[in-house]
């Protein structure tokens, strides 16, 4: 039976909006981690079958198939192709899924997969403004077919976050305590040096910049809501940021041919959809589906990475799945570390793998909410 392995994984530090990575062209940002991955593994670049990168808002400096461009910018062989994937916030995770599926189908042996996003240069949802103006912030909701199915209503991640808080009875204070814990966990991980091995510095920039040492539930309480009369504030949402991350996915044959030692096996991968208006609830049914397909229970998983797009998402997921909160986002999540959309899926997987190794855990599950009400799930087995 074919297997897909993770040989190595690397990422940049996550830079704040307008910070250390903001002036770096997205292709150069991705090229930086691609080059680092190849140096760390010692693999022959010419043996790579494909490069698959997740990226959203592929306009401007992120247009033109950035996976291909980044490989070439890194000075690597021209015969190696590249393709760019957009599954919204799950783009980087989906890139790894496509790489693993190519290996599992025996149509490829060695693939670089991950994601990149410079949100400072290309603002979130910038691609949706092209060709406007539209009545909604999500132009697809202007479609007559869409309106016939879902009605004339706003489709917004902010609205969805508020709806989740309301349904799962999460008060603003509950979410502020959750967000504060995310920052404390991230800062503890940084101070303990837990991210050092997974990060490839960019010049002198070698530490995630988004976690805030000066925040507290009391300070968060003074912020205005993002939606009038709502509960979600900027402190309860993942910050705008910049980053890139990639993994090397290999077949058993590639391991043997190139003398590679894998760090993990991809035990399961899947993706599911949910109500696109609620949008952020996808990880709940996706996790149930993944565990059922894998023949596992929630208690079989040692660690979880569930993307913190908003402070309402993970508490709702935890309540519905029964996951132990002490195993979820143990080194902080997107609220503290940032959510560089196209890169986040690969960043989470890189961090999950390192933490499994540090703690001796066997299985790690990663999932994230995505535009359109979708959610990817990956289960890694540490080797």
UniProtKB/TrEMBL annotation:
Pfam families membership: Thiolase_C, Thiolase_N
Record EC number: 2.3.1.9
Domain Thiolase C-terminal: 261-382
Membrane-crossing residue ranges in chain numbering: none
InterPro entries tied to this protein: Thiolase, Thiolase-like, Thiolase_C, Thiolase_CS, Thiolase_N
Cleaved signal peptide residues: none
Keywords: Acyltransferase, Transferase
Active site residues according to the UniProt entry: 89, 339, 369
Domain Thiolase N-terminal intervals: 5-252
Positions of the UniProt region annotated as Disordered: 205-224
One example GO MF annotation: acetyl-CoA C-acetyltransferase activity
Similarity annotation: Belongs to the thiolase-like superfamily. Thiolase family.
PANTHER family: ACETYL-COA C-ACYLTRANSFERASE (PTHR43365:SF1), BLR7806 PROTEIN (PTHR43365)
Protein name in the entry: Acetyl-CoA C-acyltransferase
Record lineage: Bacteria, Bacillati, Actinomycetota, Actinomycetes, Kitasatosporales
